[in-house]
Design a protein that fits this description.
binds FE2/S2 (inorganic) cluster; 4-stranded antiparallel β-sheet; single chain; mainly beta; 100 residues; 0% helix; 3-stranded antiparallel β-sheet
Length: 100
Amino acid sequence: MASVKVAQVDEVKAGGCKVVTANDRDLAPYNVAGAFHATDNTCPHKGGPLGEGDLDGAHITCPRHGWQFDVATGQCKHDPAARVETVKVVVQDGDVSVEL
Ligand code: FES
C-alpha cells in the first residue's frame, strides 16, 4: 500500500470536497469539520461525480440523482445494498494523502 498526496489541507475547506486522480483512480476527498475522508469519485448508481456534489455533515449528495452516501463508511442512505468504496486518508504536514 502506498501513500499518494492528493491535495493540501487548505485546498479542501471544511464542508467541502473535490475531485482528484491518484494512480489513475478518480477519488473524492472530503473535509468533514476538519476530519478528512475519501471515496471513489464514481457514484455506484449511474456513475455521477460524487466529488462535485454537496457535502452536508458526513453525507455527500450525488449531483446526478441525489443519492446520499456517508463519506466515512461509504454506505448509501437510500439503498442499504449500495455503497461507495472508501479510501483511507492521512493528513500530515499540511498534505492530504490517500492510502492506495
Ligand atoms: S448517478 Fe449518483 S445518484 Fe444517480
